[in-house]
Write a sequence for this structure.
């Protein structure tokens, strides 16, 4: 996960993905259901231009299901094939193969008409770090295996995993780089753990998260910490949470750094609830 995305890495990765794409019939683009926009790299539209693609809203089990459904409608209206998924539990996995067959049926019919015997479907997965690419591959292949390498630009021999019958998945995912279009994108990627917090001020990160939570999920804050957010700014709220949780230093002042780390851990472990940080039509 600790990839430094230098321009050289991006160029190598782009080239590698472009080469792999030539070998497959369909691309599975994995994004984080909590932040489907911020966890997407728009360059895939160019890299994968004419290949059929299915967008997989992964970690749907961690997101607000009403908002998951809004995203599904949004993408469908744009003509993007989309499935909500939880690679960890396997929910949604069963929909992938039938949808793939549906969107490739015309192509396969033409292949058969031309006398091509091999009508197996070959697929590959792409996505930014931490969206669940390895978990997806392991789930589909039924192996408990080691994490697939996250080293950009490293070329290994092509391995195919036979999933079921005529359905094959490329063993190595295409790792896309996160795209920091504005600072909010960076914050959302950090909230969800897609980028390391070490590069951010953890208290600022926690306060930013609390701003979103107190606006959109005050009931979850109340449920978890028994605090009414009304009228509290995010730093006061962080201190209040710290007080409740015993993050107190000698002398009685609040250890806001410890509290910030605890809050982020609890958010990432869905202890504050199933929370989405982006909606299709509205800034959050
Ligand atoms: P990557 O290859 O794209 O970098 O991602 P990877 O599969 O390593 O997944 C990153 C983390 O996200 C892992 O957690 C993994 O378990 C978790 N994850 C993947 N898909 C889902 C999902 O659909 N739902 C939930 N809740 N979690 C998911 P980890 O804490 O890094 O590892 P682990 O201890 O869970 O193995």
């Amino acid at each position: 996960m600790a990839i430094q995305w230098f321009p050289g890495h991006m160029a190598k990765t782009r080239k590698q993905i472009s080469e792999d794409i030539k070998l497959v019939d369909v691309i599975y683009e994995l994004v984080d259901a909590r932040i489907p926009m911020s966890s997407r790299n728009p360059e895939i539209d160019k890299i994968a231009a004419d290949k059929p693609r299915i967008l997989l809203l992964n970690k749907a089990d961690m997101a607000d299901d009403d908002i998951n459904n809004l995203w599904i409608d949004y993408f469908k209206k744009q003509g993007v094939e989309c499935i909500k998924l939880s690679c960890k539990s396997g929910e949604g996995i069963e929909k992938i193969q039938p949808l793939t067959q549906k969107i490739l049926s015309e192509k396969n019919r033409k292949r058969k008409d031309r006398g091509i015997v091999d009508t197996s479907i070959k697929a590959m997965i792409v996505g930014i770090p931490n969206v669940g690419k390895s978990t997806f591959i392991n789930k589909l292949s039924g192996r408990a295996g080691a994490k697939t390498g996250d080293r950009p630009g490293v070329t290994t021999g092509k391995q195919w995993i036979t999933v079921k019958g005529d359905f094959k998945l490329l063993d190595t995912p295409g790792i896309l780089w996160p795209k920091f279009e504005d600072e909010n994108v960076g914050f959302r990627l950090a909230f969800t753990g897609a980028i390391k917090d070490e590069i951010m001020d953890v208290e600022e990160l926690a306060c930013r998260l609390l701003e979103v939570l107190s606006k959109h999920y005050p009931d979850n804050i109340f449920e978890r910490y028994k605090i009414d957010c009304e009228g509290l700014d995010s730093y006061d709220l962080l201190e209040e949470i710290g007080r409740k949780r015993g993050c107190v230093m000698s002398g009685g002042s609040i250890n806001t750094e410890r509290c910030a780390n605890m809050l982020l851990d609890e958010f990432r472990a869905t202890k504050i609830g199933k929370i989405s940080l982006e909606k299709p039509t509205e800034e959050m």
Residues 149-153 have pLDDT under 50 and may be disordered. Residues 58-59, 61-62, 86-88, 127, 129-135, 147, 150 surround guanosine-5',3'-tetraphosphate (CB under 6 Å).
